[in-house]
Amino acid sequence: MSYVLSCIATEHNPFLVALAALMCVVGSWISFSLFRRARDTRGSTRAGWLFLNGMASGSAVWCTHFIAILAFETPLSLEFDPLLTILSLMLAIVGTGIGFGLASSGWGRFAPEAGGLFVGAAIAGMHYLGMAALHVEGFVEWNVSMIVASVALVAGFGVLSLNRAMRPVTRWCHHGAAFCFFLAVVTLHFTGVAALTITPLAPVNPGHQPALWALAFAVAGVGTLVIGMGVVTALIDLRTRALADADRMRLSTSDPLTGLGNRAAFNRVLEDGCSWADASNSQLCVVLVDFDDFKSINQLRGYSAGDAFLTAIGARVMAGLQPEECAMRLGGDEFVVVKRLTDGGSLQGFLDRLQALFTDPVRASGTALSCPVCMGVAIYPDHGLSSSDLLANVGLALARAKQDKLSPVQFSDTVMDAAEKTRRTLGVLLRGVVERGELVVQYQPQFDLETGAISGAEALLRWTHPVLGPVSPADFIPVAEASGQIVGIGEWVLREACRHAAAWPSPFKVAVNLSAVQLRQANLPERVAAILKETGLPASRLELEVTETSLMADLERSVAVLRRLRETGVSIALDDFGTGYSALASLQVFSFDRLKLDKSFAGDLAMSKEARAILKTVLLLGQSLAIPVLAEGVETEPQAAFLREAGCPNVQGFLYSRPISDGALRAMILAQDEAGPRAAARHA
Q: Is residue 427 part of a domain?
């Protein structure tokens, strides 16, 4: 090592050595900057960066070598073989490029180290090929041990440099990798030069030194141009990435249609606003805005008109906002506006201004378009102690605003929103309720009023949640209908009822309710026929009940489905007769097999002569149309006596039996068969 340092100090021009070192430092730093780009890309982009990487690193190594050779002070004239000199440059560029590519290929566990070894071999090959291109007038001798040492040094530092570049453990490893590459180049060169001994054949005039200086700076200039190309490319790429990141950030937080913030921006604004309100002991107002009939614009004028309308609304809202106000589009036709309440101004004035911004006509698609809005309003912290609670409550307020057409602006109200929260909770809990086995079918027997004999049974759905306990059908059935889950639940009830009825000791009818949603299913008759075939229940033993309300929801389609159901052999009953707005109209459009009087009539018999008169009229109507009548909700003996006297043939109610399980109903039927109808009724 001391011999190498002595050789550098005594036999080399210090200025050219410094120039070579500077070239090597800059080249190493640029090379690993380009390599980092190549490492983080794939495909053709990686190939391009590796090409630039090889150009920069190979040129830096080659320029360092030849400037250092020119720095070697000798009285002999130096000449270079052009072919070998060019080949040494190509070897440096191609060899280092392949080595860097191998290191980043991921072809094996030790790919980085193998790539570093290849880079070291390329540098060594370039050096000794370049030395072979050097011609001097004298005898040349080589120290083999020094050659071996130089190759070992370049190989070791090459492996270490790529190892640090591909396996960084600290943020300084990138600089450490470039430094190791620098050491690989300089230790190889100066150790290799120290291995060389030249014995002149004749004295020469050293007047060639100015030419060598010019050549050295020319080589440095060419190398600088090549390396500069890499620097410029890296800077352009860095700028392009910065712009792309800025665009990506803008797109991720803004709505492309209106230019307002999107849902991600709203979440951040809401969190920041709540933190600000806590820190300043102030309030934050959140207004959720939804257009009441936006779909009509899309349907009548096309989706392009709808987009143009939203764009115009977004521009007007953005222009009309005041300081401390921020608007975002959450999606579709739903917007949200957040206002920091700092100046104690009129909240109602803000809401009136906001409503005008959204509802006043705008010019879009060549015409003036407008659409009414509904707004839900919540104040932090009055209507929620966290951003999530506030968002949930303002959503509930908006739901009320959509339902109340006379008051399109609704504030969050804990009491009023409790029912909506319950409804939404039940909607979530109902998902998968059949698969979890939480539903059960019970039966309320129907009796012949004259004999007391069981004449049939109505299937009633019951739900017991593991946490909530028993849930009333009046609560969860409307939720299931609104969400569409009633289709799967209703089919399960029908299948269970048919399966149970097929195993009853006596061939009584089983009555199953159909919802309005089920009645609108075009394939309902086929599904009913398939379930009857699956369970083995004769179609004549199944009675399907529909209400007047569900029938009139889509009269033409409903009647068509009922007629097809009738063709399968099942009977059709009109449930809750007398409570709808078109009871007689229902009898005109379809010939029902049975009328079921709503339980409210039986409950009012003792107190209302009007109820008694209506009940007698309905019974006479049923007799004239030859349609049997069944009275629901019979709970007292006087009610039963009046119905018996009025000629009502069948009843059901708590006086005779509460809803019971399938097993209990079987036991009741067996008891009736063994002891007679009256005993069975008393037993119930």
A: no
